[in-house]
Specification:
Elements (H helix, E strand, L loop, with lengths): L1 H12 L1 H4 L4 E6 L7 H16 L4 E6 L7 H10 L4 E5 L22 H8 L2 H11 L3 E7 L3 E6 L14 E4 L3 H9 L3 E4 L5 H6 L5 E4 L1 H6 L2 H4 L2 E9 L2 E6 H4 L4 H35 L3 E3 L5 H5 L2 H7 L3 H12 L2
Parallel strand pairs: 1-2, 1-3, 6-7, 9-11
Antiparallel strand pairs: 3-10, 4-10, 5-8, 5-9
Helix pairs in contact: 3-12
Length: about 325
């Protein structure tokens, strides 16, 4: 397969670097060097190297060198590579519980998300990965998605009535927009700028760094900080690799991974702040402190449609009740 050929080529280039290490673990990321997730795994690698006196090395292959997320997840399951950083969304077909993390307004805030994922519920979700030959090591931030548009400040659910928003090609997102009284328009990300500019759509939804880097702030100056979606990122190891490690080395790696989550989250928060400041300086208007009660209550039919089993209903309830 093509992606395996790419993987082998990339791994061979690192052979000389790995020569000094007794164990070399290879980790994949689709994001470029310097991105918070890449730097998070690098921080993990540094801690592991120090605690093992250089015996265990982790090499991070950024920029999709080893393949796109779904390909590298499969490679990690089979032990072709050792670690992968990927969004929960890419695990949906492999670990069904991850689908619940795409429910709108599941998390009240970033702090709430951290409390859930770093606690017993996160441990429970992590256990589901082992059944698919993956060991969940750490949960990273993937940012929160909010609405932005070219027409007016959106301060209430009534303001969304009849507006046209680009969403990802995802049934949950389409149903979310319907429940909010807006019109969902799935389209490729690359078409959003011109579609807002020409009035085909009124706006879209994403996080501050994407809103900034895409240039969408230039054509859609009203950004409503409703944070309707927060999908965690995961650093996972192949169970094939994990089982070859001693219990002591497993503990070192697990602790380093969890510590790296703090690094990654801080870097992500810095990136969000920098992007927010940049778009505001350029003329964007950020609508904050909105009452999300009506938005959340409007999701009842969406949850009824997608949270169908008693187990899923219980998990959602426990997530919502987490302080």
């Amino acid at each position: 397969m093509k992606f395996l050929t790419t993987t082998v080529a990339a791994l061979l280039t690192s052979a000389s670097i790995a020569g000094a290490c007794e164990i070399t673990l290879r980790s994949s990321d689709t994001h470029p060097d310097g991105y918070p997730t890449v730097e998070g795994v690098k921080a993990m690698a540094e801690e592991v190297r120090e605690k093992t006196d250089g015996r265990i090395c982790i090499e991070v292959f950024a920029s999709s060198q080893l393949g796109e997320e779904k390909d590298t997840i499969e490679q990690t399951q089979f032990g072709v590579i050792d670690m992968v950083r990927a969004s929960f969304g890419s695990f949906n077909d492999i670990v069904p519980v991850t689908q619940l993390m795409s429910l709108p307004y599941l998390f009240r805030s970033v702090d709430h998300q951290h409390a859930v994922m770093d606690g017993p519920i996160g441990e429970e979700i992590g256990a589901a990965f082992e059944e698919r030959d993956l060991v969940a090591l750490a949960y990273y931030d993937g940012g929160s998605r909010s609405f932005y548009n070219s027409q007016k400040p959106v301060q209430s659910i009534e303001d969304l009535e009849g507006m046209k928003f680009r969403v990802m090609q995802n049934d949950v997102f389409v149903d979310m927009m319907d429940a909010l009284g807006a019109n969902a328009t799935p389209m490729p990300y690359g078409e959003v700028y011109s579609s807002i500019q020409t009035g085909v759509i009124d706006g879209a939804e994403n996080n501050f760094p994407s809103y900034d880097s895409s240039g969408h702030a230039e054509v859609a100056r009203y950004f409503t900080l409703d944070e309707h979606l927060m999908v965690p990122e995961l650093v996972a190891m192949s169970k094939v690799t994990w089982d070859k490690l001693s219990p002591e080395d497993q503990q070192i790696i697990r602790e380093a991974a969890r510590n790296s989550a703090t690094v990654q989250r801080e870097l992500w928060a810095e990136q969000e702040r920098a992007s927010e400041e940049k778009v505001i300086a350029a003329g964007a208007e950020v609508i904050r402190d909105i009452d999300k009660t009506a938005f959340i209550e409007a999701m009842a039919p969406v949850y009824e449609k997608y949270v169908t089993t008693p187990e899923a209903q219980d998990l959602v309830k426990r997530i919502q009740e987490t302080e």
